[in-house]
Design a protein that fits this description.
single chain; 340 residues; alpha/beta; Rossmann fold; eight-stranded mixed sheet; two-stranded antiparallel sheet; 12 helices; 39% helix; 15% strand; globular
Amino acid sequence: MESTEVPPRPAYRVRPFRPAWWLPGRHAQTVGGKLLRPSPAVELRRTRLETPDGDFLDLDVGPAPREGAPVVLVLHGLEGSARRPYMLLTYRELLDRGLRPVGLNFRSCSGEPNRTARFYHSGDTADVRLVLDHLAQSFPGTPLGAIGFSLGGNVLLKHLGEAGADTGALRAAVAISVPYDLSAGCRELDHGFMSRVYSEYFMRNLRRKALAKAHLLGEFCDLEAVRRARTLREFDDAVTSRLHGFRDAEDYYRQSSSGPFLERIRVPTLLLHAEDDPFLPPHAIPRDAIRANPWLVPGITAAGGHVGFITGATPWSVRFWAEEEAARFLAAHLEEATET
């Protein structure tokens, strides 16, 4: 259904992305994004939030650049953490624009195993709701924003769609390199040498974490199937779906993909995505849903890879377009919210 509401329109326009000529192609942008991003020094304070099911979430809270600064929750991707270079670079961009960053470490991602059998997954919005409520209580009257990368972006968009107009203090959001259709994304990662390299990179950590909790997972999962898993789909069949109430991997993907939730989003949301993203085929980008919802601001580029978006004339003048655009968009919306 097309929205009849009119979203706020502060002075923001997506700037063109000009990919670095010396990083041609989607894999060069993707791998370059991992290898070339700096890790700027940001003072972070680790705080622990207890969850209703007896587990915990670790938050990395950045400094306040000024009194009453808007707060931005930042969500990492699959098997990332709140202290990965793209997260630290995002915090620095936010701070430079007067916004206070808070990074969420999904369960098992803060450097300490979580207490329960469950992990985190692409459609798990309950923890994000819990953290946003916690931030609203911790910073009363302060506008909130949010940024999600990849899996974190999928979780964020699904949360926004579930919430509709009832997002509380959350006034604007950005989602970067989102796998809008999880099944299509997994099929894409099943083909080609580089796709298998990406899958195995994730699988090493996922298998290790699951087997380290074998004493908790044994009653839910076939541990031999966990050991045999070589693709994300196999792991999701053996672990993710079994632990989180889904019938199988395909049921998990169907219920957790963010694409079907886009039409119900009612906060200004910037979507940054490259058509050559190796984690999602271009036909799976939900263009019609994006066009139909005026609350969504598309930043769809021809190139950029997956969380790449590297620009600059030389490797010595490199810049990271997605982090810059995310901070610009949120600053425009949250500063306006602060003044009203």
